[in-house]
Fold:
Amino acid sequence: MRKLFLLSFLVLAAFAVNAQTDTLQQYTGKYRFPEGSVVSEINVTVESGVLMAGSVMGNTELKKTEGDVFEIVNFGGTATFKRNTEGKIISVRVQVSDVDMEGAKQESGVGAFFTTKYTE
Structure:
Protein backbone atom coordinates (compact mmCIF):
# COMPACT_ATOMS: atom_id res chain seq x y z
CA MET A 1 0.00 0.00 0.00
CA ARG A 2 2.83 2.37 0.87
CA LYS A 3 4.55 1.69 -2.46
CA LEU A 4 1.31 2.37 -4.36
CA PHE A 5 0.88 5.69 -2.54
CA LEU A 6 4.49 6.69 -3.25
CA LEU A 7 4.17 5.72 -6.92
CA SER A 8 0.93 7.70 -7.25
CA PHE A 9 2.55 10.73 -5.62
CA LEU A 10 5.55 10.56 -7.99
CA VAL A 11 3.30 10.29 -11.05
CA LEU A 12 1.23 13.29 -9.92
CA ALA A 13 4.37 15.32 -9.18
CA ALA A 14 5.79 14.53 -12.62
CA PHE A 15 2.49 15.51 -14.23
CA ALA A 16 2.49 18.84 -12.34
CA VAL A 17 6.04 19.65 -13.50
CA ASN A 18 5.14 18.76 -17.10
CA ALA A 19 1.99 20.89 -16.94
CA GLN A 20 4.00 23.86 -15.64
CA THR A 21 6.61 23.38 -18.38
CA ASP A 22 3.85 23.23 -21.03
CA THR A 23 2.37 26.46 -19.66
CA LEU A 24 5.77 28.18 -19.78
CA GLN A 25 6.37 26.83 -23.29
CA GLN A 26 3.97 29.42 -24.75
CA TYR A 27 6.50 32.16 -23.90
CA THR A 28 9.48 30.47 -25.54
CA GLY A 29 11.04 31.67 -28.76
CA LYS A 30 13.22 34.38 -30.21
CA TYR A 31 12.22 38.02 -29.72
CA ARG A 32 13.81 40.70 -31.94
CA PHE A 33 14.22 44.32 -30.89
CA PRO A 34 14.58 47.41 -33.11
CA GLU A 35 17.96 48.53 -34.41
CA GLY A 36 19.80 50.57 -31.80
CA SER A 37 18.34 48.66 -28.83
CA VAL A 38 20.59 47.56 -25.98
CA VAL A 39 20.26 44.00 -27.31
CA SER A 40 19.08 42.99 -30.77
CA GLU A 41 17.33 39.82 -29.60
CA ILE A 42 16.64 37.51 -26.69
CA ASN A 43 15.97 33.81 -26.72
CA VAL A 44 13.42 32.57 -24.17
CA THR A 45 13.61 28.89 -23.20
CA VAL A 46 12.43 26.51 -20.49
CA GLU A 47 15.27 24.82 -18.61
CA SER A 48 14.42 22.29 -15.89
CA GLY A 49 10.97 23.80 -15.50
CA VAL A 50 12.29 27.39 -15.23
CA LEU A 51 11.69 30.13 -17.82
CA MET A 52 15.02 31.60 -18.90
CA ALA A 53 16.01 34.51 -21.15
CA GLY A 54 19.37 34.72 -22.84
CA SER A 55 21.07 37.50 -24.79
CA VAL A 56 24.55 38.91 -25.38
CA MET A 57 24.14 40.58 -21.95
CA GLY A 58 23.84 37.18 -20.24
CA ASN A 59 21.22 34.73 -19.04
CA THR A 60 18.57 35.23 -16.40
CA GLU A 61 15.57 33.53 -14.90
CA LEU A 62 12.17 35.03 -15.70
CA LYS A 63 10.12 34.59 -12.53
CA LYS A 64 6.35 34.88 -12.96
CA THR A 65 4.75 37.61 -10.86
CA GLU A 66 1.21 37.86 -12.25
CA GLY A 67 -0.52 37.16 -15.54
CA ASP A 68 1.99 37.57 -18.35
CA VAL A 69 4.42 39.66 -16.26
CA PHE A 70 7.77 38.22 -15.17
CA GLU A 71 10.58 39.53 -12.98
CA ILE A 72 13.93 39.63 -14.81
CA VAL A 73 15.82 38.21 -11.82
CA ASN A 74 19.47 39.06 -12.62
CA PHE A 75 18.76 42.53 -14.01
CA GLY A 76 16.04 43.81 -11.66
CA GLY A 77 13.41 44.57 -14.27
CA THR A 78 10.23 43.21 -15.80
CA ALA A 79 9.29 41.35 -18.96
CA THR A 80 5.67 41.74 -19.97
CA PHE A 81 4.49 39.40 -22.70
CA LYS A 82 1.72 40.64 -24.97
CA ARG A 83 -0.93 38.57 -26.74
CA ASN A 84 -2.97 39.00 -29.90
CA THR A 85 -6.77 38.70 -29.99
CA GLU A 86 -6.46 34.90 -30.27
CA GLY A 87 -4.41 34.78 -27.05
CA LYS A 88 -1.11 33.94 -28.75
CA ILE A 89 2.10 35.56 -27.42
CA ILE A 90 3.31 38.06 -30.06
CA SER A 91 5.80 40.33 -28.29
CA VAL A 92 7.61 41.15 -25.08
CA ARG A 93 8.19 44.51 -23.40
CA VAL A 94 11.40 44.65 -21.36
CA GLN A 95 11.84 47.32 -18.71
CA VAL A 96 15.15 47.47 -16.84
CA SER A 97 16.33 50.67 -15.19
CA ASP A 98 16.11 53.40 -17.86
CA VAL A 99 15.65 50.94 -20.74
CA ASP A 100 12.14 50.32 -22.07
CA MET A 101 12.03 48.26 -25.26
CA GLU A 102 9.56 46.04 -27.05
CA GLY A 103 10.32 43.27 -29.50
CA ALA A 104 8.32 40.95 -31.68
CA LYS A 105 8.28 37.20 -31.31
CA GLN A 106 9.77 35.68 -34.44
CA GLU A 107 7.65 33.18 -36.35
CA SER A 108 9.03 31.59 -39.54
CA GLY A 109 11.53 34.41 -39.96
CA VAL A 110 8.82 37.08 -40.15
CA GLY A 111 8.07 39.67 -37.49
CA ALA A 112 7.32 43.30 -36.93
CA PHE A 113 9.63 45.54 -34.96
CA PHE A 114 8.55 47.79 -32.15
CA THR A 115 10.06 50.89 -30.61
CA THR A 116 12.73 51.37 -28.00
CA LYS A 117 12.20 54.11 -25.50
CA TYR A 118 14.75 55.37 -22.94
CA THR A 119 13.39 57.12 -19.89
CA GLU A 120 15.30 59.55 -17.74
The domain at 2-118 is CATH 2.40.128.50 (Lipocalin).
